[in-house]
Amino acid sequence: MTARTHPFGKDLRAVLALGVPLAGSHLAQFLLAVTDTIMLGWYGVLDLAAGVIGAALFFTVFIFGTGFANAVMPMVATAAASDDDTEVRRSTRMGLWLSIAFGIAVLPFFWFSGTFLTLAQQPADVVPLAEVYLRIIGLSLVPGLAVMVLKNYLAALGRTQVALWLTLGAVVLNIGLNWILIFGNLGAPELGVRGAALASIAVQIATVLGLALYCALLPSLRRYALFQRFWRPDWAAMGLVWRLGWPIGVALVAETALFSAAAIMVGWIGTHELAAHGIALEITALLFMVHLGFSNAATVLVGRARGRRDQQALRGNARAATFLSISFALATMVVYIVFGPQLVGVFLSPDEPARDVIITIGASFLVIAAVFQLADGAQVMGMGLLRGVQDTRVPMWIAAFSYWGLGLPVAYVFGIRLGWGGEGVWAGLAVGLSAAALALMWRFWRGPGRSDAAPWALAR
């Protein structure tokens, strides 16, 4: 098949058709956490602190568990492109099995989370409330991970709109339930942070039921018989999902933990710096969801091309996805540099005494984030491309070394030892993410992305 069969414009449209709804779904998912933070902030400082600490710990565990869901996406895309309906069903079903098993296995960690929070020297008045929050919200992990598996299954089959609309509906439901359960409206008890946790459970259960019904009842998806004899184990398929999934989870946790460590170091510097760090990170995380959507689209399209053994399509889709991610990163660089103070100011009350100080610090972080965003977009795109060819083990080591072997030490030396402050910590983040971006992109384009490569034989 010649390159002419895959003109660049066609590849761009293919990436946009998948990537835009996926990015929208990620943005909506992000808004779930944002609405919890805002509404707990309206309720009380103690409950907000417990929710923030608890959510950070929950998210770290959750992000590792999503490794199995992320393994399902390339496996289903490749199998569907090969017209292997049985393999589509096997991969998705065992992804659900592993996600459910993981969610149950970590419940004791949530139950005894107070011990870990105490060892981490968190405020004594916050720990008991945060432990209660984690004991409740831990029950949402199983349905939450199942949601991720089904979303990735549908994305691999090109069904991205339903996940977007269901996630937007989940945001509305979450706001309503928070209003009732946190504040005690409509005759409900006033539960504070406990109410936010209960709302999260209800939202995840409602979402997974909606996705499951869609998967089971849509006529075009019945051919996969996803839930037929769901209780029967498939050890071979489970082994494949496990081998692809756990390295993805480790790589995701390595990146998440880098940002958590950065927050701790900025906290050593000062309260104003920590506030500015949190705001700047919230802004960059919001826009990062667009890069993540394009990365997921790249995983699906590369996985499909791999299933068809179409190397020209694989390269064309990879080029288009990379082009879109870089273009968006360049646009955000301009926004951060030109509008940084205004963006930070949105998060602060006009009456905040330290408003001007925090805006100045936050704007300086966003200048560094101009480079940071470019590197972050490139590394997540490199991950997505390599997942498409089912290469996850070496990328895990690349991520671990880049984030913890380079990024964290540089952040500590620049920010703490050399006294560069928060800007030094952020420079360390940029170094770690840039190293990961270069290594991951090199691995793809010098390996499965070469014109003469055979990536259908490169599964790790």
From TrEMBL:
Quick one: where is this thing mainly located? membrane
Where is the protein found, in the record's own terms?
Cell inner membrane
Q: How does it sit in the membrane?
A: Multi-pass membrane protein
Does the record bear Lipid metabolism in its keywords? no
Pfam short name (any one): MatE
Q: Which CDD domains match?
A: MATE_NorM_like
Q: Out of the domains of life, which is the source?
A: Bacteria
Entry keywords, A to Z: Antiport, Cell membrane, Ion transport, Membrane, Transmembrane, Transmembrane helix, Transport
The portions of this protein that span the membrane are: 12-34, 40-73, 94-112, 132-150, 162-184, 196-219, 240-269, 275-302, 323-345, 357-375, 396-420, 426-445
| NCBIfam families for this protein | matE
Identify this protein by name. Answer: Multidrug-efflux transporter
Q: Which organism is it from?
A: Roseinatronobacter alkalisoli
